[in-house]
Design brief:
524 residues; five-stranded parallel sheet; Nase/OxRdtase_comp1; Chlorophyllide a reductase subunit Y; bacteriochlorophyll biosynthesis; photosynthesis
Length: 524
């Protein structure tokens, strides 16, 4: 065990979990991991995983998360999504099994985003991977960690290399000393986005909790049991949004339930004990499957803007079998206020919108009802029954909606449209600013605002209008820096750079030969 006692700050007792190092284990440098398997070789790793006994797992991923034009993610490592979900849960420890470089990157970015508890790590080398000793090390690690005084659950995650090598987390015990053991595989060659990796863990935990409920009585959540039928919410959202949804449900005699992914294990029981599920983020395929197995109806879209709120409240009314009068009463209480808020915070401009959070279509609806022109919406997530209503509403407004949009799709749309504002992922924002187009990062500046009900109406106008007002400044900066930082002029030079066109030509021929060889291998 690590000797850095008390080095990290924790929310609760689970923060005391330390990096796992057995007496006879050593951290393996990244370069010593199997060279043939890296996160850059998705198709080869998928073949290895199938040969290693994980063919059924990959088939499940292909059904739940169909890929787009690329065979590997264009966002950050997908495991960041499931890691972040686990690190936000009370009395939960997280253990990663993967290459040292991957674990370093994941722990770094998780702490960058505010996680203040340790991440367990079971290192490996080629020998322990091939002989099965890695699985034995993982099993020993979870036995060492399983302290019921500190933990309710331990989440063990296989990254790319252990998944490709067939490390069988399914053979771990379901519980040790009363501590639940949840093993998941989150490979970059099977999960297209880190948003969908959240669903992998949420679905696994809901499956475990559902089986506990079927087996007998389970503990009540610390917050108690609602006195009205509840609507569970699927998808991480701004903290004010569940409260706004609760206010809109109250006139219908309903209450808001837990938000999935949950913050503690017992909330999973309350989430499953709902009357209906709102798929606010529509990509939670595995979680939806568990709710449906529990007999719970699922309602798509969200109470966003005037039209979205009216349709969503009607959908909730249908799910609970409420009268038209009851639904109309709730609509009449909130729709006029939403319309007034939208009118009071107008947005006048052309905006392209893209992201990988899963809420892109909802944000586009809100922007359009605020007066903006949104010709293109790209989402890295796949098409889903729970996003159909949003996609149809946008299509009726003349919007091109691209599911499983690639970075190339998003940049091409932005370059062709030349909008007043581009909202997107980091590389899209970077490209937009290079073109002199005001740009905003979706995750930090758009997702971090309320979207639902009256609070959401008008919440985007201030930041959107302020960004679009900088268009003149962006053009001045583009003119000032024109020609700097591109191609052969990248960096700082004293004099002209030394060009080597012969090396480029040689490398181009190598790439061409490699592409031909790969194509020939596929035809065999």
């Amino acid at each position: 065990m690590s000797d850095r006692e008390g080095y990290e700050v924790g929310y609760d007792e689970s923060g005391a979990v330390e990096v796992i190092r057995g007496e006879d284990r050593q951290t393996v440098p990244a370069q010593d991991a199997p060279e043939a398997l890296g996160c850059h070789s998705g198709s080869e790793m998928a073949k290895a995983a199938a040969m290693g006994g994980n063919a059924e797992l990959l088939e499940g991923f292909a059904r739940d998360y169909p890929t787009g034009p690329h065979d590997k993610p264009q966002s950050m490592c997908p495991a960041f999504g499931s890691l972040r979900v686990g690190l936000r849960m009370k009395r939960t420890a997280t253990v990663l099994s993967g290459s040292a470089c991957c674990v370093y990157g994941l722990t770094f970015v998780s702490h960058f985003y505010g996680a203040r508890r340790s991440v367990g790590y079971v290192p490996f080398n080629s020998e322990t991977l091939v002989t099965g000793k890695l699985f034995e090390d993982i099993r020993e690690a979870v036995h060492d960690l399983a302290d019921p005084e500190k933990l309710d659950s331990i989440i063990v995650t296989n990254l790319c290399v252990p998944t490709a090598s067939g490390v069988p987390l399914r053979l771990l015990p379901d519980e040790i000393n009363g501590v639940r053991i949840v093993g998941i595989d989150v490979p970059g060659f099977g999960i297209p986005t880190h948003a969908e990796a959240k669903d992998v863990l949420a679905g696994a935990m809901l499956n475990y909790a559902r089986k506990e409920i079927e087996a007998g009585p389970v503990p009540m959540p610390a917050s108690g049991k609602a006195d009205r039928p509840t609507v569970s919410l699927l998808g991480e959202m701004f903290p004010a949004d569940p409260m706004m949804i609760g206010q809109m449900l109250a006139p219908m005699g309903l209450a808001v339930g837990p938000v999935v992914p949950c913050r503690e294990w017992r909330e999973l029981y309350a989430a499953l004990d709902c009357g209906a599920v709102a798929a606010i983020h529509p990509f939670y395929t595995a979680a939806v499957r568990e709710f449906q197995a529990a007999g719970r109806p699922v309602v798509g879209s969200a109470p966003v803007g005037h039209d979205g709120t009216a349709a969503w409240l009607a959908g909730i009314g249908d799910a609970f079998g409420l009268s038209a009068e009851t639904v109309a009463n709730a609509q009449n209480q909130f729709l006029p206020a939403i319309k007034g808020a939208l009118a009071g915070a107008p947005i006048d401009g052309t905006i392209t919108l893209s992201g990988y959070e899963g809420s892109e279509l909802l944000v586009a609806r809100l922007l359009i009802e605020s007066g903006a022109r949104v010709p293109y919406v790209g989402t890295a997530c796949a098409k889903s029954p729970w996003s159909e209503a949003d996609a149809q509403w946008l299509a009726d407004k003349g919007v091109t909606v691209k599911f499983r949009a690639s970075l190339e799709d998003d940049c091409a749309a932005m370059e062709a449209i030349q909008p007043d504002l581009a909202i997107g992922t980091t590389p899209v924002v970077q490209k937009g600013k290079e073109l002199g187009i005001p740009s905003l990062y979706f995750t930090n500046l758009i997702s971090a605002r309320p979207l639902m009900g009256v609070a959401g109406a008008g919440s985007l106008a201030e930041v959107i209008n302020a960004a679009m007002a900088n268009k003149g400044r962006m053009h001045s900066m583009k003119a000032f820096f024109e020609g700097v930082g591109h191609d052969d002029t990248a960096g700082v030079w004293e004099g002209a750079p030394n060009l080597q066109p012969q090396f480029r030509a040689l490398n181009a021929k190598k790439l061409e030969r490699a592409a031909k060889a790969a194509k020939a291998a596929e035809m065999i």
